[in-house]
Amino acid sequence: MKDHGESRHTHETTTDTCKTDLAASKQMKARVPEIAERIIAHCQEAECYTHIDYEPIPDEGFVADMIDKFREILFPGYFSRGKLDPANMKYSLGQSVSQLYDMLAEQIGHHIRHDCMRYDLPCSECEYGGQSKALAVLEAIPAIRQTLSTDVQATFEGDPAAKSHDEIIFSYPGIFAMMVHRVAHQLFKLEVPLLPRIMSEHAHGLTGIDIHPGATIGPRFVIDHGTGVVIGETTLIGTNVRIYQGVTLGALSLPKNAGEQYRGKKRHPTIEDDVIIYSGATILGGDTVIGARAVIGGNVWLTESVPPDTTVMMEHPRLVYKSANQKMKGA
């Protein structure tokens, strides 16, 4: 048992330590304003990218809400907040379309105004532009919905694990990614700045599927599993194409400072109708054409065209087996 002297000593030691820690903490905290000043001053340097100005900044959170509203309208009844039935469909869906128009017009106008002010562009009547482009997107919804229905049907036909169309619409990441892409592509064609790319990156973050909004993709397109798929801006994909996880449809290695030189030019491959591309395949280059009905095997690397009705596959790998008591040959 400790005596009173030992208890007093322990208490004094603890108190002294606390006072020392408190003094050190104050000294550390006192350095923060000076460091903050250096951080703020660095914002003025050329190599620091900032958005510190008076023009509006895009709202990524609002874009996520807008995508949810698109999903609600493109797949009626699946993602509605309330029950959608024949009696209330006209009212409920009409209200959703009106809400989406307001969201679209605001966001498109916001992004047009952002670029005009930030890059000192000629006035493009951002409010009118937002409203007119929002109407153009709404008018395209029946066609987008029809194309998405072909994607769902092709997915169901090609996947024995799918028990129903409902399962695919509710849970397949490829369908969500394509829903976002087909809307973002429409905005891209309307030359709406920033917004299509923010939408695509939102879907990329949720699904692992990276599709540039500029990519042109035909109906009955299937992304099976999907994680790690990359589809570049100038990719052209025909009808009834199926790709698996880890597929890259990308550009060849570009030289230094190639941004301006190659911007807007065809840099990504063309995939013709009825092609299947298996997992891990990489197909690169704007002149590369994968002919109709071709089959590209897993982990294949291609930088040149493939004729129609051709199967391309890796040579069968040589496997080496060894038991626990046996050295590998050549070891």
**Structural class determined from secondary elements:** alpha/beta
* Strand line-up of the largest beta sheet: 1-4-7-10-13
So how many helices?
A: 9
Number of domains: 2
Task: Give a written overview of the molecule.
With 331 residues, the chain is α/β, with parallel strands linked by helices. It has 2 domains: 49-208, serine acetyltransferase, domain 1 (Orthogonal Bundle); 215-255 and 262-318, UDP N-Acetylglucosamine Acyltransferase, domain 1, CATH 2.160.10.10. It is 47% helix and 10% strand. The chain has a 5-stranded parallel sheet with strand order 1-4-7-10-13. The longest helix has 33 residues, at 126-158. The protein is globular. The N and C termini lie far apart (65 Å). The mean pLDDT is 88.
Topology (SSEs and partners):
Elements: H1 4-30, H2 32-42, H3 60-74, H4 89-118, H5 126-158, H6 165-171, H7 173-189, H8 195-207, E1 210-211, E2 216-217, E3 222-224, E4 230-231, E5 236-237, E6 242-244, E7 248-250, H9 259-262, E8 270-271, E9 276-277, E10 282-284, E11 289-290, E12 295-296, E13 301-302, E14 311-312
Parallel strand pairs: 1-4, 2-5, 3-6, 4-7, 5-8, 6-9, 7-10, 8-11, 9-12, 10-13, 12-14
Helix pairs in contact: 3-4, 3-7, 3-8, 4-5, 5-7, 7-8
